[in-house]
Amino acid sequence: MDLKEIQNLIKFVSKSGVSEVKLETEAFKIVIKNTPDIQVTSVPQPEVHTVLPAHVAPAQPAAPAPPAPAPQKAENKEADESKYITIKAPIIGTFYRRPAPDKPPYVEVGDTVKPGDVVCIIEAMKLFNEIESEVSGKIVKVLVEDATPVEFDQPLFLVEPL
User: Residues 55-70: pLDDT tens digits?
Assistant: First the structure.
């Protein structure tokens, strides 16, 4: 069984919803465990009422602030990023930009990649999987910090097509 077949098996297990898969032959044994997503619920906070002494004058109302232009910038940013191709994580694991701590990163912002070029490594189950670009273009943004966990299908890089 080669690396691509193992990656495809991991993808299949993560999409299927099963909790564990065991595959054993005379040559090897693979166990893939799929943990469910953790759901976080919020707990309402108790209301706090402040009582002011009678001799304290109420604060003067502040002048109204001008509306923030942030929503327009967010829309422009989304429109700008829509022209880019996203390289996504094919597996769950830990994202590494370089082959070793003392080596340079595989790609930097501004580098040109083509299909088959290694752009990063994702460590999954003590296996270091080289992630290759499937597109041609220029790296415009790295979306994940080095040595951080990534989820399946999480965006890793933005690429401007050539």
Answer: 555 555 555 555 555 5
